[in-house]
Amino acid sequence: MSADVFRVMLRMEIHAGKREEFERTWLAIGDSVTSHPANLGQWLSRDAEDPGVYYIVSDWESEARFREFETSERHLRHREKLHPYRSAGAMTVMHVVSHLPGTGAARTHEEWEAVR
């Protein structure tokens, strides 16, 4: 991973009773983000202590390319599909300074799911 990577982290609080539907919807529409040529990947995580809180992390080639996506019609449609599940949220943006890959980093998504 290049140190030039721009990372976006969203913290989303999801309405009780809508968490499973939110997860399914996020997965179903995720390609509207990951198919953008500047997107390097995206992760959905659930808070270990508060199951109503999720974090979405996505990596981008650059801040400029992310901002291009952020202001696009494509992003607006994506947000509209997730908005009904959300009760609150926040966005943090950052520049990756360095990256030390772990031994397990070579696993494919399918291998990771099998371990999970």
Automatic annotation (TrEMBL):
Residues 6-94 form the ABM domain. One of its GO terms (molecular function) is monooxygenase activity. The keyword Transferase does not apply. Keywords: Monooxygenase, Oxidoreductase. The keyword rRNA-binding does not apply. InterPro entries: ABM_dom (IPR007138), Dimeric_a/b-barrel (IPR011008). This is Heme-degrading monooxygenase HmoA.
